[in-house]
Each structure stands twice: as C-alpha cells, then as structure tokens.
Amino acid sequence: MRLIALDLDGTLLNREKSVSPRNRAALLAAAELGHHIVPATGRALRAIPEPVLALPFVRYVISINGANVADLQTGRTLLCAEIPGPRALELLDFVARYDAMYDCYWQNTGWIDRDFLERVREYNADEEVVRLIQTTRTPVENLRAFISSRAETVQKVQLCFHDLRARSAAADEIAARFPDIAVTSSFRNNLELNWKDANKGSALRFLARHLGLAQADTIAFGDSSNDLSMLAAAGTSVAMGNAAPEVRAVCDAVTETNEEDGVAVYLEQNLLI
C-alpha cells in the first residue's frame, strides 16, 4: 500500500483545471489496488476544484501548502499549522510596501481587497492565473481590517508581482525579516507565505504516520518550489515535465508534462504493472 500525494496546478490538473480521463483512470486503478490518493495543494480546501473533491477515492487532502490536513469522510481537521493573528497583521503591513497584489487564506477561503481583485490583470499576465484568482477569492473592502476584526490565525498570505526582479528581492527581504515564515512559490510571479511549520513535506510525513505507512511507501508528484519539501520527504519523488529546474534536479524521476497526463504515464509504467 502506498500514499500517492499529488500537487494540483501544473501537476494533476491540466490548463482547463480538470483531471483528464487518463489521469482519472490511472488514479482509480491505483485506488482499487489499495493505494491512498491524496491531493496536496497550495489552494485552500474550498478552492479545490469540485471534480477533484468528488473523486470517490479521495478521502484525505493536504491543502494550503500543508497548513491543513483534512479527512473529508469525517470532516475532521487532522493537522493545522497557521500564522498567529498578530504575526499575520505584521506580515500584511510589511508586504503592503511592495508594488504587488496580496491576499490571504482564512477558514479555508481566500480573501482579497476588492480593489486588487478588480485590478488583477495589472499583476498577472497569465490568463490561467487570472481565472484562478477570480474564481477562488472573496473580495472585502479592507483586507487588513477584515482580518484584524475576525481572525485569530491566518492560513497563508500570497503576493503576485508584475516585476519578477521585485518578486525575487521581496522573497529575500521577507525571509530575513520573518524567520518564522516559510516563503515559497507555486507559479511564475507569486510568493506564498506560510507559518514555518506548514509545508507539504511535514504534512506528508504526518499523514503517512496517521495511516500507519512508512515514509518509504510514499510517492509525491510536483512541479514548483512549494512542492520541494514534499518531494524531499517522499520515498519516491516525481517531477512533472513542466517542472521548474530546481524541482527536476532533486527528484528521483521526471515524467511527462501535466498537459501530457504525466501522472498517469508514471503510474502506468511503475505502479500499475
């Protein structure tokens, strides 16, 4: 029995944000052999596409870069690693200095200033990213005030930059100023800020223990820097053909791209034989 952890965007999902018939068939075949199929995403639980959550073999989900591990069958949160409220407000104040769009996750939902949402294309040239943000964020008039009045903890803060050099500089500055915050990325122009204990690797190790599985019995698929901890933790790590160079360099295997059903290709050749 294996735990198969799958990043979503750029990995399991194609550009239409759907699971291809071939990928679905391969995952179903793996589930029928007794393997656990676990989405492992930077998205909030409520932002995961319904076709993924509706897969009959998906019970456990790692979301928000490992800040949350949920059991969909019981409705229980098994693991929670969130940014304390005061620290989250400090972080929001700090990132406001950048020419960047920012938002945050609270209670498994993405929240954003209405003004940023209306100007989303100023910070994102990729229409796939624009659609993702438009469909997974709830606008409020003032994000900081909203969080200050409601949230004891925040699950993640995200920034999107139109200047990639500014993004790189911001990543270094935030990491230096906030040593208790993990700085990663899931697409070309964003930064994702989580609590130091929240990462996909820690979540994968936790869930494997919860299921009584050895770390060696885990397989992880990914494409971006927010997948690196999970890929390092897995017994077998698989980079997508479209993965960032730093991801491909550390993985045990490289499969086809997410548009070429890379997840299914690897499973068919290595697990379903």
In a few lines, what is going on in this structure?
This protein has 273 residues and is α/β, with parallel strands linked by helices. Helix content is 36%, strand content 25%. It is built from twelve helices and 16 strands.
Architecture overview:
It is built from 12 helices and 16 strands. Strand 12 and strand 13 form a beta hairpin. By secondary structure, the protein is an alpha/beta fold. A 6-stranded mixed β-sheet has the order 9-8-7-11-13-12. A 5-stranded parallel β-sheet has the order 2-1-14-15-16. The protein has 2 domains: 3-81 and 198-270, Rossmann fold; 83-195, Hypothetical Protein, Haloacid Dehalogenase-like Hydrolase, Chain: A, domain 2 (2-Layer Sandwich), CATH 3.30.1240. It has helices at residues 21-32, 50-53, 85-95, 114-118, 120-123, 127-136, 143-150, 164-177, 200-210, 228-233, 245-248, 262-270, and strands at residues 3-6, 36-39, 60-63, 68-71, 76-80, 83-84, 100-106, 109-113, 137-140, 153-154, 156-161, 181-184, 190-195, 218-222, 236-239, 253-254.
